[in-house]
Specification:
Number of helices of chain A: 11
Structural class of chain B: alpha+beta
Shape of chain A: globular
Number of domains of chain B: 3
Largest sheet of chain B: 7 strands, antiparallel
Radius of gyration of chain A: 24 Å
Strand content of chain A: 35-45%
Helix content of chain A: 10-25%
Oligomer: heterodimer
CATH class of the largest domain in chain A: Alpha Beta
Number of domains of chain A: 2
CATH superfamily of the largest domain in chain A: PmbA/TldD superfamily
Shape of chain B: globular
Largest interface: A-B, 81 and 82 residues
Structural class of chain A: alpha+beta
Distance between the termini of chain A: 59 Å
CATH architecture of the largest domain in chain A: 2-Layer Sandwich
Largest sheet of chain A: 7 strands, mixed
Order of helices and strands of chain B: HEEEHHEEEEHEHHEEEHEEEHEEEHEEE
Chain lengths: 485, 451
């Protein structure tokens, strides 16, 4: 990792002529009004996208962004300014703008950075980032997926494939003296299929990725599996019936249904909401918020995962944080500002979308640890209910705790057996209550494939989720078929 | 590296460079903006942010192949690299006979002055912004003792300049300003909390609602949610408040997008000229309303943004198209190309609204014996391919024509096809609070799932 810091440091020096000495001077200017803390966030980012539709790779696009955000903290106040024109004059102007929030004038405080190295992880040692791989290799993969999808079922009418990749080089310098850099690759392959039969048109979608090299996607176990899954879902939806409406027992399959934890629990445990006491989980540490079967963690240190980071966007190394331990609420997710104000330690969850955004507490990879039940036994235990295995998006109101998430593949359970497929239904519940209704947890913990993006306050960041098969007693299912009730 | 100024000359120069490298056609989109926001919380400054940004994007054609790229580094060397990158990308994409710029004769000629910039962006100081955000939050906090906390008040302002040029020789430029004030108070009683939000958003500073009015409205919205409960699962009439109606229109605009249609990814495929909604429904898209948030003098391809009727008394009269998606369906662009810098065009509505009807909102509520007045939606449960719709909802239960008690943790479900056909009453309370607007609507029935 030490090499990476040097590389990121050199990168900005070489590209924009901003030296370590300049950084020290800027931070000291930013602190000039007795501010508590200042940091600089340098970012250089390349995004590339190629996509296929109607059998043709019609689109290719590439964008390059660079910029610097200057932040000054004074107690609970944040001053922020950013520029995409990286010159010393502009940075000095940004530093002055950002420090306008601190009121009392005083002399410049000398700042020395780089003395302390941040001991970070090395979670994604990718030699060639996916943005640097020859385009022909990417388009060839897209054509192969199109061919495969169409060969799997004659009812496949259209196939959309996209491959998006990113490389981000970041450098954080803080007035506390540390300098931390990272190089963050990211790739995501997505396959969407439209199937049609007798005028009934249905969609299936699947994909995956992470902080991985392009070879990951060339692996048959990945691209071929994603394609087969997208086709299978579209075909399955051709037969799906209207989803039921009302409260019933729900079994969630392993993996991506972990979005339940992200919405129902994760957001409500972010430090900013809890410092402001606007979360349904405010001041509930030490209390029972889930059944004893539930242990939930947020872990930014899993190798190659989409939600992982060597260090967060404030330069703090990521870690594994226990949120719920055997049903008891244990911890919050913190950035530096909120950790400081709550007199807690930062947890490596200070993230931001880009240099144009102020960091805040965000999740990384959030999942429930495996339990002891066999998944088959969990299904068998339900007399009449819903088995949901794949989801679209979700949302939460952190203040009243209500959350929703929408199933994209679900089945009725009748007398302990998986029955007919039903159309996507929205599940709705109450965050502080839902995990208390978890009555069985499977031994089959699975992490998602690497497709999640979380939005908060207008900022999007990549995240991961995971879940073993679980049974929830009594959750509201929002289908259209109300007459059965 | 020296940073270049954004100008029509620079755009034409880039297109010339590209031509020398073999491009047969192309276009350039550039924007620069000046933006700021302040956030206050519980009477004190929370955040102040300020920024200036520039971005430049190009799309190049090599015959029927094309690619796009963009950069925030506006220097001679970076632009040269950008052109090279785009050429390399274009060589890797397939020939697509439908691709290309619009016909030269279709491009906007006289660019209307739509009064989109009030020139006040720099005149409103940081202190003014803080004062306005504080006033909005204070009005919310003082409205009722049950308003006990706040996620804060915000004020934002931006001014942007957009330039577009293409290899037919078109160049155009416009400036637009926008301002917003919002508050998110928290109400509590009996140990339970409810948060809500209200806002005002305008192109002109002088047209913003008074911050005090925004604050009071936000407080009312949070208070009316206190004590919310679930209801029994049933089918019943549903009334959408204007924000929720606008949300329905947003889904409709996505289903009307040429890209969704030619891909077969919309429930409205092949419905042009047919009845898709009740006859109470007339929907218009108009990019030429002076001073409106969705107005612009030309679209993302340089085409005029004229007013058009999309749905006329229930009958679908027009899709939303750009040049490419139009060609795919043998139709002309409707001037709805929307364009991120460095993306190829997509389709988006301009000012897209459902025309006001005859009924007062109170009259609509009074017509419902037992039903659900929806004021909040959650989640993403809409499938535009099939029209299936299932979303989390909160609002107020209607009993015998009266708003009776707040409801939460329920879902409303149906299918967009039926929902549009079931629009039984249209309110007269149309107000442009954003680019997409609609009045209060009554749908004859949906499934409400709860206990």
């Amino acid at each position: 990792m030490a090499q990476e810091i040097i590389r990121a440091e050199n990168f900005f020096d070489r590209r924009f002529g901003v030296t370590g000495h300049d950084v020290e001077k800027l931070l000291s200017q930013a602190l000039a009004r007795k501010a508590d803390y200042a940091d600089l966030y340098f970012e250089y980012r390349v995004n590339e996208g190629v996509s296929l539709e109607e059998g043709l790779v019609k689109q290719g696009s590439r964008s390059t962004s660079n910029g610097v955000g200057v932040r000054v903290l004074s107690e609970a106040k944040t001053g922020y300014a950013y520029t995409d024109d990286i010159t010393i004059d502009n940075l000095a102007l940004a530093a002055r703008t950002a420090q306008a929030i601190a009121q009392n004038r005083s002399a410049d405080v000398p700042v020395k950075v780089g003395g302390e190295r941040v001991a970070a992880h090395d979670l994604y040692p990718v030699k060639t980032p996916p943005t640097d791989v020859a385009l022909e290799k990417k388009t060839a993969l897209l054509y192969e997926i199109d061919r495969l999808a169409r060969s799997l079922d004659a009812r496949v009418k259209n196939v959309f494939v996209s491959f998006a990749s990113e490389e981000k080089i970041v450098l954080v310098a803080s007035s506390k003296g540390w300098l931390a850099g990272d190089i963050q690759p990211l790739g995501r392959l997505n396959v969407t299929v439209i199937a049609e039969e007798r005028g009934n048109r249905q969609v299936g979608t699947y994909g995956g990725g992470g902080r991985v090299a392009f070879d990951f996607f060339l692996d048959k176990n990945n691209y071929e599996r994603f394609t087969r899954e997208a086709v299978r879902q579209a075909i399955l939806n051709l037969e799906a019936e209207d989803a039921p409406a009302g409260t019933m027992d729900v079994v969630l399959g392993p993996g991506w249904p972990g979005i339940l934890l992200h919405e129902a629990i994760g957001h409500g445990l972010e430090g900013d909401f809890n410092r402001k006491k606007v979360s349904a989980f405010s001041e509930r540490i030490g209390q029972k918020v889930a059944s004893e079967l539930c242990t939930v963690v947020d872990d930014g240190t899993l190798p190659s995962r989409r939600g992982s980071l060597n260090l967060d966007d404030e330069g703090t190394p990521t870690q594994r944080t226990v949120l719920i331990d055997k049903g008891i609420l244990r911890g919050y997710l913190q950035d530096r500002l909120n950790a400081g104000l709550m007199k807690m330690a930062p947890t490596g969850n200070g993230r931001r979308e880009s240099y144009a955004h102020i960091p805040m507490p965000r999740m990384t990879n959030t999942f429930m640890l495996a339990g002891e039940s066999a998944p088959e036994d969990i299904i068998r235990s339900v007399k009449k209910g819903l088995y949901a295995v794949s989801f679209g998006g979700g949302q939460v109101d952190i203040t009243n705790g209500k959350f929703v998430f929408s199933a994209s593949e679900a089945y009725l359970i009748e007398d302990g057996r998986i029955g007919r497929p039903v159309k996507g239904a929205t599940l709705i519940g109450n965050g502080p209550d839902v995990l208390t209704r978890v009555s069985m947890v499977g031994h089959d913990l699975k992490l998602d494939e690497g497709v999640g993006t979380c939005g908060k306050d207008g900022q999007s960041v990549p995240v991961g989720v995971g879940l073993p098969t679980i049974r929830i007693d009594g959750l509201t299912v929002g289908g259209t078929a109300a007459e059965n009730k | 590296m020296e940073r270049l100024e954004l100008s029509a000359e620079l755009a034409l120069d880039i297109l010339k460079q590209a031509k020398q490298k073999g491009a047969t056609a192309g276009d350039v989109m550039m924007a620069e903006s000046d933006s700021s926001f302040v956030a206050v919380r519980l009477g004190d400054v929370d955040k102040v942010s300020q920024a200036q940004e520039k971005r430049l994007g190009i799309r190049l054609f090599f015959g029927a192949s094309s690619a796009s790229a963009s950069t925030s580094d506006i220097s001679t060397a970076a632009i040269e690299r950008l052109v090279d990158d785009t050429c390399a990308l274009a060589r890797a994409t397939a020939k697509d006979e439908y691709s290309g710029l619009p016909a030269p004769e279709a491009l906007a000629k006289d660019l209307p002055d739509l009064d989109l910039d009030d020139g006040q962006n720099r005149a409103v100081s940081v202190d003014d912004k803080i004062r306005l955000a504080l006033a909005a939050e204070k009005a919310a906090l003082e409205f009722d003792p049950r308003i006990t906390n706040s996620e804060g008040g915000e004020f934002s302002a931006s001014a942007a300049r957009v330039l577009y040029a293409n290899s037919h020789g078109f160049t155009g430029e416009y400036h637009g300003s926008s301002y917003g004030v919002s508050v998110a108070p928290v109400a509590s009683s009996n140990g339970s909390m409810q948060r809500d939000y209200w806002y005002s958003s305008q192109r002109k500073f002088a047209r913003l609602e008074a911050p005090e009015a925004v604050g009071r409205r936000a407080a009312e919205r949070a208070l009316r949610r206190l004590g919310a409960r679930k209801v029994k699962t049933r089918e019943c009439p549903v009334v959408f408040d204007p924000e929720i109606s606008a949300n329905l229109l947003r889904h409709l605009s996505s289903a009307l997008s040429g890209y969704a249609l030619y891909k077969g990814a919309s429930f409205l495929v092949g419905r042009l000229g047919e009845k898709i909604a009740s006859e109470n429904v007339t929907i218009v898209d108009d990019g030429t309303i002076p001073g409106a948030l969705g107005s612009k003098p030309f679209d993302g391809e340089g085409l005029p943004t004229a007013k058009k009727t999309i749905v006329d008394r229930g009958v679908l009269r027009s899709y939303l198209l750009d040049t490419y998606s139009g060609k795919k369906m043998n139709l002309s662009s409707t001037g709805n190309a929307s364009r991120g810098i460095g993306d190829s065009p997509g389709v988006g509505p301009l000012n897209f609204y459902l025309a006001a009807g005859a009924h007062a909102p109170e009259e609509i509520v009074a017509s419902v014996d037992n039903g659900f007045y929806v004021t909040e939606l959650m989640g993403f449960g809409v499938n535009l391919v099939t029209g299936d719709y299932s979303r989390g909802a909160a609002g107020i239960w209607i009993e015998k024509g009266q708003l009776a008690y707040p409801v939460e943790e329920v879902t409303i479900a149906g299918n967009l096809k039926e929902m549009l056909a079931n629009i039984e009453m249209v309110g007269r309370d149309l107000e442009f609070r954003g680019r997409i607007a609609a009045p209060t609507l009554k749908l004859s029935r949906m499934t409400v799932a709860g206990n």
